[in-house]
Write a structure and sequence with these properties.
Layout (H helix, E strand, L loop, with lengths): L20 E5 L2 H4 L12 H7 L15 H14 L4 E5 L2 H4 L9 H16 L3 E7 L5 H5 L9 H15 L5 E6 L1 H10 L10 H26 L4 E7 L3 E3 L4 H24 L4 H7 L7 H5 L6 E4 L4 E5 L7 E3 L17 H13 L5 E5 L17 H19 L4 E7 L18 E3 L6 E3 L1 H12 L3
Parallel strand pairs: 1-2, 1-11, 2-3, 3-4, 4-5, 5-7, 6-8, 7-10, 10-11
Antiparallel strand pairs: 8-9, 12-13
Helix pairs in contact: 3-5, 7-9, 8-9, 9-10, 13-14, 14-15
Bound molecules: 6-O-phosphono-beta-D-glucopyranose (BG6).
């Protein structure tokens, strides 16, 4: 998607505060492999993969083999100068049936990982759930019912009891909106269901409830932790000034961004959805969803341009035909949207402490004959988004750190191994890791603290 773009036409020096945190994010299912190791149970993505729902027919059974190669991966983070690392814990490794018996060997793995991170001077940020829902819980209704709230809180408590003496930073969920829409609305992600608007809203509400319960469980387990969750937030813009597009955009913004954000931060479901959600919101739910957030994780990839399109959930169609620059996923490149989003959190939500917990892009990387990956598009993408973060900081936004997505090429869900998001290449035949130019670029930004 490269276009000749001037990197810095702003006269202000773009400097990051000395205590700004730097690093990368990953998730368990996308990098660990070792799906049969140490008593791990099945998750919804195992079945989804087995049903042939992955674009390139690949599976995550080996992925990056991080389960065995984590020391090498931590060494890569340390060599880049990263001080923080967000990873996720695999629920089916800890509770193979989702609830009940605890698998000690699963906990042992994360013990080893955390200790190795700390030894390398890297602060662990643990995310409790990044989409690998235990299959037995899905069989019992998954995120469609409130039966999942108790098991998630129990799981959170068990993990915190083991790790919170060393892990200070905790994120509950990753991107509940993506789970709701793609897993239960469009069926493009596990569990692959197409339950329409009600299914999407139910999944959102029950993730909100589970998240609230888990926040309370972790806080009760250990004092003084930094607690939060990770939301995928996308500024929504209407495709035209036609009233029907404006109305579709406003409603979509409520579904995509505000159910999660307003639920957590304000204990309020957006008015626009009150009627649609009335069938399953019980008295007391809004208080149960609200919880103080010490650190809000924000994943940013692009804006969303919405037009009214009948037949889609909430009559919302998206895609920005006018945007010429796109990543290998086809996603528009809109770095200014990140500054807009941070500004909205500052002005509309009391300027909470925010960490960018994902930002990055898929590129069609080419390995040169000497084995190098000159991923100029990714360097440009990272640079422009960091410019946006620096501008937001200069305007007073409370941004604490930036974690790129992702350290490694990985199993990109429905796209399997076909899309590469890493700043380090993984050769899926040999599992060899090769830092790309983007890795060296980011290491230099971390070293100098400026762009
Ligand atoms: C985010 C997810 O939505 O986007 C990551 O939190 C994911 O897990 C990333 O990998 C890129 O999307 P995908 O589906 O192409 O891997």
């Amino acid at each position: 998607f490269s276009q000749p773009v001037s990197l810095a036409d702003d006269a202000r020096p773009l400097v990051f505060p000395p205590d700004f945190r730097w690093g990368s994010s990953t998730s368990a299912y996308q990098i660990e492999g070792a799906l049969d190791a140490d008593g791990r149970g099945r998750c919804i993505w195992d079945g989804f993969t087995a049903r042939g729902r992955i674009l390139d027919g690949s599976s995550a059974s080996v992925a990056c083999d991080h389960y065995h190669r984590y020391p090498e991966d931590i060494a890569l983070m340390a060599a880049a100068g990263f001080d923080s690392y967000r990873f996720s814990i695999a629920w089916p490794r800890i509770l193979p049936a989702g609830a009940g018996a605890v698998e000690g060997r699963g906990l042992d793995f994360y013990d080893r990982l955390v200790d190795a991170l700390l030894e390398a001077g890297i602060t662990p940020i643990a995310c409790l759930h990044h989409w690998d829902l235990p299959q037995p819980l899905e069989d019992a209704g998954g995120w469609q019912g409130r039966g999942i709230v108790g098991p998630f809180a129990d799981y959170a408590r068990i993990v915190a009891a083991r790790l919170a003496d060393r892990v200070r930073d905790w994120m509950m969920l990753n991107e509940p909106n993506v789970v709701a829409l793609y897993g239960y609305g469009l069926g493009e992600h596990a569990p692959g269901l197409r339950l329409g608007e009600q299914g999407i809203l139910r999944a959102l509400h029950h993730q909100n409830l589970a998240q609230g319960a888990a926040l309370r469980a972790v806080a009760a387990e250990h004092a003084g932790l930094t607690l939060g969750t990770v939301l995928n937030l996308q500024p929504v813009v209407a495709d035209s000034d036609r009233p029907e597009d404006a109305a579709a955009a406003a409603r979509w913004d409520a579904v995509w961004n505000r159910v999660a954000l307003d639920g957590l931060m304000r204990g309020r479901i957006p008015d626009a959805l009150a009627e649609a959600m009335a069938g399953f919101i019980l008295p007391g739910d809004e208080e149960a969803i609200r919880h103080p957030v010490d650190l809000l994780g924000v994943n940013y990839y692009s804006r969303m341009t919405i037009r009214r399109e009948a037949g889609r959930p909430f009559d919302a169609g998206w895609g920005d035909p006018r945007c010429r620059r796109r990543t290998d996923m086809g996603w528009p490149v809109q770095p200014e949207g990140l500054c807009d989003l941070l500004t909205e959190l500052r002005t509309g939500y009391g300027n909470p402490a925010v960490m960018i917990t994902e930002n990055g892009c898929a590129c069609d990387d080419v390995v040169t004959p000497d084995g190098q990956i000159h991923d100029a598009d990714r360097v440009l993408f990272l640079h422009e988004h960091l410019e946006s973060v620096a501008r937001a900081l200069a305007d007073g936004c409370n941004v604490k750190g930036y974690l790129c997505w992702s350290l490694l090429d990985n199993f990109a869900w429905a796209e399997g191994l076909s899309k590469r998001f890493g700043i380090v290449r993984v050769d899926y035949d040999t599992l060899k890791r090769t830092p790309k130019d983007s890795y060296r670029y980011l290491a230099e930004v971390v070293r100098t603290g400026q762009l």
